[in-house]
Design brief:
297 residues; alpha/beta; Rossmann fold
């Protein structure tokens, strides 16, 4: 009886590569990178991409901080971080009541992965911030170099809410780069123009270093012509900013947050897990070479 290739053996091999990345470490960036993960359209895989990219980078030896800026707290849930009311969170950090270090929690996904959780209190922050001095830069002030250096952070990923309100503006002011997840579906590019014009406004008035450095195609279904058409259109429009890796539509990716896990922990042998590892490797390689900077590639 031949013990050759089988689908189960293939999945086991993929799981081993994800869970035991020894010898496959990813390079640390030449300088710290802060990325806002933004798309005001809901359901595009924004939070899913944030937590799985962060987990993949952390499993490969890179220190990552996820800032959960969505009042729903889904990133906090997926990273296994407490975010009940009363938990020190990004809300208190932005109001200046506590420092960044006091709100940081270590994720169950990896000791290299830290998270500033979001509680439901954040839902009222938009209103409270309106009357504050420098309301657009509260998060930027909290994520200052000394605080991030003390935590030895290589990457900060800010999970933005699905809107273009004051919380998202805070993320865009704090970040130097924007990562936009785009789903491979019919309305993929609808509303993207509004996001890009908001990024331009923030760059013009509040943060001159801000730029779209990375676009990640998600929910790709190879059985449809539409997915290929959207992929082709996005690559044509955005060029090398689009990662080569495409994240497939996957039940496992959707199920993982229900178990307070990333897909890398929930089903490391799945194609979804492998695609996030591949996308994270691309991001890490761009970080090491400086290719993410405008004109860098």
């Amino acid at each position: 009886m031949s013990l050759g290739w089988t689908p189960i053996a293939d999945e086991a091999a993929r799981a081993a590569r994800v869970l035991h990345p020894d010898g496959h470490g990813m390079p640390r960036p030449a300088e710290r990178r802060i990325l806002g993960v933004a798309n005001q359209k809901g359901g595009v895989g924004k939070t899913t991409s944030t937590v799985n990219l962060a987990a993949a980078l952390a499993m490969h030896g890179i220190r990552v901080l996820v800032v959960d800026l969505d009042p729903q707290g889904n990133a906090s849930t997926a990273l296994g971080v407490e975010h009940r009311t009363g938990t020190p969170s990004v809300y208190e950090v932005m109001l200046g009541e506590i420092g960044l270090q006091e709100a940081v929690a270590v994720s169950s996904a990896s000791p290299n992965l830290l998270c500033v959780p979001a509680t439901i209190d954040l839902a009222g922050a938009e209103i409270e911030l309106v009357s504050m001095v420098a309301r657009e830069s509260r998060l930027s002030q909290a994520l200052h170099d000394d605080a991030l250096a003390e935590l030895d952070i290589d990457y900060v990923l800010i999970d933005c809410p699905p809107s273009l309100g004051l919380l998202t503006v805070n993320a865009l002011v704090a970040a130097s780069e924007v990562l936009i997840p785009i789903q491979c579906e019919y309305y993929a590019l609808e509303g993207l123009g509004q996001l890009l014009s908001n990024i331009d406004l923030v760059r013009s008035h509040l943060n001159t270093s801000l730029h779209v450095s990375t676009i990640l195609l998600t929910m790709y279904d190879g059985r449809t012509k539409l997915a290929d058409q959207v992929t082709s259109e996005v690559r044509q429009h955005f060029g090398p900013t689009v990662l080569r890796t495409v994240v497939p539509r996957s039940v496992k990716v959707s199920e993982a947050p229900g178990y307070s896990q990333t897909v890398l922990a929930y089903d490391p042998g799945s194609r979804g897990a492998m695609s996030y590892v591949d996308a994270a490797r691309e991001i890490a390689e761009h970080g090491a070479t400086g290719a993410y900077r405008p004109g860098g590639r």
